[in-house]
Design brief:
Blueprint: H1 3-11, H2 16-23, E1 35-36, H3 39-47, E2 56-60, H4 66-73, E3 78-83, H5 89-98, E4 103-107, H6 123-128, E5 133-138, H7 144-157, E6 167-175, H8 176-183, H9 193-201, E7 202-210, E8 215-216, E9 223-230, H10 233-236, H11 241-252, H12 259-262, H13 284-292
Parallel strand pairs: 2-3, 2-5, 3-4, 5-6
Antiparallel strand pairs: 1-8, 6-9, 7-9
Length: 296
């Protein structure tokens, strides 16, 4: 199909709000759904995906497909949507018919998907992009943090796992508070587990903010789009991310206490520390160093 006629086919779809009404689809609180209708914003998010024209882009929680349509319109080689709510199926199927083979829909729980060996495989687009995939999502609020940590594990370990498919980038929408925790640095009030795990394996930055008025229903908090790009695998291959995650949980769980009071049997001088430090004073690399010594 001629690319221009394909875009016209996608553009000829009814507005997202109209498709929702026709399908009797409403946001569901139990799924943490807040739908984004603003075409300028969805387009801005989609265009932020690096190398989108050569990428397989995975979207979790597409709902009525506003961002899905934007990813296709931005030229994504292939889009994989993962949706738990089957009531969105009539809308997503209509988008699928307009996408000329570039959209694949998976109905299921993203928390149950093995992203190391995803069910969609590398495919032609994935092979062109080196066998990896990008993730771009307006994440459901109730699972966003858990999914992020799983994806950070992939960024840290996919090169070491046989037959794994790697993550090339993540462009994700979070509550502003969560976004600030992801990009926080040592000494920041928001510095904690998410910042440590992210900084060890990736470079993260907030691209832009999204007002709550852009969503239906309108959440009580503001949101931000965060982009996370993996570091060179050679620089992170020695990090034991699961052990580091356990250590951050232990130390940040009592963040106002000195680390020697939380783990009294440790010779902190072996790590160049006195033991009087608190978790918020330790760099991500120091967390990784301590975790590698089997301290948990």
């Amino acid at each position: 199909m001629n690319p221009n006629s394909e875009l016209l086919t996608l553009n000829s779809l009814p507005p997202v709000s109209e498709m929702m009404r026709a399908a009797n689809l409403e946001p569901k609180k139990q799924f943490g759904q807040n739908f984004l209708f603003d075409l300028n914003l969805t387009g801005k998010i989609a265009r932020a995906v690096p190398n989108i024209e050569n990428s397989t882009v995975v979207e979790v929680g597409p709902g009525p497909g506003g961002l899905t349509r934007a990813l296709l319109a931005a030229g994504a080689a292939r889009v994989i949507t993962i949706e738990k709510d089957r009531t969105a199926e009539p809308i997503l199927r209509e988008i699928e018919r307009a996408a000329a083979g570039r959209l694949e829909i998976i109905f299921g729980d993203a928390l149950k998907i093995d992203f190391f060996r995803p069910p969609w495989g590398a495919g032609a687009a994935g092979t062109a992009a080196g066998g990896g995939y990008a993730i771009c999502s307006n994440l459901p609020y109730n699972v966003g943090t858990e999914l992020l940590i799983r994806w950070l594990h992939i960024m840290a370990n996919s090169r070491l796992t046989p037959h794994a498919i790697g993550l090339t980038s993540m462009t994700l929408m979070f509550q502003r508070e969560v976004a600030e925790r992801i990009i926080a640095r040592v000494g920041d009030k928001q510095y904690g587990r998410l910042a440590v795990l992210t900084a060890l394996v990736a470079d993260a930055k907030i691209l832009f903010d999204v007002p709550n008025t852009a969503f239906v229903p309108k959440p009580k908090v503001q949101s931000s789009v965060v982009q996370i790009i993996p570091k060179n695998p050679d620089t992170v291959s020695g990090y034991r991310i699961p052990d580091t995650e356990a250590l951050t949980a232990k130390l940040f769980g009592q963040r106002r206490k000195m680390i020697r009071g939380i783990m009294p049997g440790v010779d902190w001088s072996a790590f160049g520390l006195s033991g009087t430090e608190r978790a918020e004073e330790l760099t991500p690399e120091k967390f990784a160093e301590i975790a590698a010594a089997n301290m948990i």
